[in-house]
Amino acid sequence: MTTPHSFDQALVLDTLAEGHYRGQTHPAYWNMVGPFGGITAATALRAILLHPRLLGEPLSLTVNYAGAPTTGPFTVDATPVRTNRSTQHWNVSIVQTGADGEPVVTTTATAVTAARRDTWSLADMPMPEVPRPDTLQPVPPVPGVEWFNRYDLRPVAGALPRQWNGQGDSSLTQLWMRNTPERVLDSCGLAALADVFFPRVWLRRAVHVPAGTVSITVYFHASAPQLQATGTGYVLGQARAQEFRNGFFDQTAQLWNEAGTMLATSHQIVYYKE
Q1: CB neighbours of 37 closer than 8 A, spacing ≥ 6?
Q2: What does the pLDDT look like over 103-132, one tens digit per residue?
Q3: 247 torsion bin: left (phi>0), alpha (psi -120 to 50), beta (else)
Q4: What's the confidence (pLDDT) of residue 168?
Q5: Each residue of 74-103: b (16+ CB within 10 Å) or e?
């Protein structure tokens, strides 16, 4: 029997009742404090996709990180709050039991799924011309940040600063990315990839300050067949900030497959400390 990919192991949810699931944090996707935000987003989406009343495919997902989950079990509640002819609106919460035995909400999310249809379509932001991934070197493993080692990341521009000297000049990053070991891309995998980028403040300032995502929204532009066609290939991610102010900055990102199809875009707000 083939051992499931670590990503799929991390997304295992046991059904307790309709829309109510139990999961377990996975050491392969641990960050410095709590799980990798991308795996949390993927877990919220997974709960929606398991729901028997699901309509269509993911269109958007907003995840709010209320607090870092601790190692151990958690429950996920996914509720379709309204279903229209072509769209369905969702509320999701992830809860753990606190040290005092009381429930603690670690994550809230909203989502929209939709029945896609053929219409006029246009790619108004083409994929930038960049070197192929096989011509670039992967980022070496990072000790103590386990989730980072679950991805093959090949920077084109805007890698981590070589010197933390306060002399950064741009927040732009372009890099090729995919799961390692390889895994066929799906919407949960795409949601996680949207959060792979390290904090923009590190790049723009070249100062290593504490930072963490407060909220991320992912817009899914690719249909299931387009994700299937992407297969285990690389995805080009591009991210940059627009404003750093009063302890928070934003990030906007785009993700394309190797064929140049835009798969998703995302926006997030991130806190940082001096």
Answers
A1: 31, 63, 65, 195, 212, 213, 216
A2: 999 999 999 999 999 899 999 999 999 999
A3: left
A4: 92
A5: bbbebbbeeeeeeebbbebbbbbeeeeeee
Residues of the chain with pLDDT under 70: none
Q: What is the pLDDT of residue 58?
A: 98
Q: What are the angstrom distances between the C-alpha of 159 and each of 54, 91, 107, 138, 171?
A: 39, 36, 29, 11, 10
Distance of CA 242 to the CA centre of its chain: 19
Return the closest-CA partner of residue 156 out of 127, 183, 187, 182. 127
From 82, 84, 11, select the one nearest 44 (Cα to Cα).
11
Question: How many angstroms separate the CA atoms of 20 and 200, rounded?
Answer: 35
Q: Are 161 and 210 in contact (CB under 8 A)?
A: no
User: What tokens does 43 get?
Assistant: 């877990």
CA distance 94 to 43: 9
Q: How many CB atoms are located within 10 Å of the residue 166 CB?
A: 9
Q: The pTM is what?
A: 0.96
Q: Mind listing the domains of the chain with CATH numbers?
A: 6-115+132-272 (2.40.160.210)
Give CA separation, 100 vs 40, 124, 252, in Å: 23, 52, 38
pLDDT digits (tens, 9 = 90+) for 224-264: 889 999 999 999 999 999 999 999 999 999 999 999 999 99
